[in-house]
Design brief:
Elements (H helix, E strand, L loop, with lengths): L9 H12 L9 E4 L8 H8 L2 E4 L9 H11 L1
Parallel strand pairs: 1-2
Helix pairs in contact: 1-2
């Protein structure tokens, strides 16, 4: 799932993620892997509201989010 909030603040990003997650079929909404950006500072609120577990990759290890990094590259093209 790809969400583009109005800005990178957690105040706008988390509600946008919640809204998008509510439109996903249950079998596709098991977990979310995010980076360590400030937009996910309220990840617990997202987890509780959307009932989706949030995981984070280790710092400086983007290969732990391979699908996400690959998709971002395709979107940049």
């Amino acid at each position: 799932m790809r969400v583009k909030p109005a800005d990178r603040s957690t105040r706008t990003a988390v509600p946008a993620l919640i809204l998008q997650a509510q439109n996903l079929p249950h079998e596709l909404s098991r977990s979310l892997t995010g980076d360590r950006g400030e937009e996910m500072a309220s990840h617990k609120r997202f987890s509780l509201t959307a009932d989706i577990q949030v995981y984070f990759s280790d710092p400086q290890n983007p290969w732990q989010r391979g699908t996400s990094e690959h998709t971002n590259g395709l979107l940049r093209q």
